[in-house]
Write a structure and sequence with these properties.
The protein has helices at residues 2-9, 13-17, 48-63, 76-86, 108-117, 134-145, 160-169, 178-182, 186-192, 204-209; strands at 24-27, 36-41, 66-70, 91-94, 119-122, 148-151, 173-177, 197-199. It has 222 residues and is α/β, with parallel strands linked by helices. It has one domain: 3-Layer(aba) Sandwich (Rossmann fold), CATH 3.40.50. It holds the Pfam family DNA_processg_A. This is DNA processing protein.
């Protein structure tokens, strides 16, 4: 995995401590090397309005030439990947299983398409046991490879909070959509005290367009 080693060596010491020592992948690894990447995450049991918000944000990211990162879970993740592909953008799926496994199984076709045409990554080797703890670990890696994270929709018990805290801990931009704050999600409001910003209809363009290049400095040619 010389490609990943080159990428790993460019990380800061803090990033290296939070990075997997190995990363298994299929697809276009240059998506990790060029341009900006933004994670779009949220509820598995997403509402209809959450689906619309996910599509809107994913489309804007594509139009801004930003690669959309998500975790191939049901709900927000699946919508983010599909919207990006339909918009002819670039997407990275960071999964909590080995590359040869599918979770959920109904996303097999989508996972295979991402592996073929975009980038599929996992830190879990073949035959590694799939347990619930894999997914918060996966969220740390998603936060690491992204220049920012956007939380679309989430509940109080949502695993999405792991991604949010990891983003802040790694010094990444974290944007929480206004609807999440209005629903009085305790952890989301707490994140605002640590640097997270509320994403609204009025500010989303400026906030997203001004996301700094933290993990790469060169544009990706879409």
């Amino acid at each position: 995995m010389n490609t990943y080693l080159d990428y790993y060596n460019k990380l800061t010491e803090i990033e290296k401590k939070n990075s997997p020592k190995e990363l298994f992948f299929k697809g276009d690894f240059s998506l990790l090397e060029f341009g900006r990447r933004v994670s779009v995450v949220g509820s598995r049991n997403v509402s209809e309005m959450g689906i619309k918000r996910t599509r809107f944000i994913s489309n804007f990211l594509v139009d801004t030439q930003i690669t959309v990162v998500s975790g191939l879970a049901e709900g927000v993740d699946t919508t983010a990947h599909l919207s990006t592909i339909e918009r002819e953008g670039k997407t990275i799926a960071v999964i909590g299983t080995p590359l040869g496994q599918y979770f959920p199984v109904k996303n097999k076709k989508l996972q295979d398409q991402i592996a073929e045409e975009h980038l599929l990554v996992s830190q879990f080797p073949e035959n590694y046991s799939v347990t619930p703890k894999n997914f918060p670990i996966r969220n740390r890696t998603m936060a690491l490879i992204s220049d920012a994270t956007i939380i679309i929709e989430a509940s109080e018990k949502s695993g999405t909070k792991h991604q949010g805290w990891e983003s802040l801990r790694l010094g990444r931009e974290l944007f929480i959509m206004e609807n999440v704050i209005k629903e009085n999600i305790i952890w989301a409001k707490e994140m605002l005290h640590y640097g997270a910003q509320v994403l609204t209809n009025d500010n989303y363009k400026d906030l997203i367009e001004n996301i700094p290049y933290l993990t790469s400095k060169e544009e990706y040619a879409f």
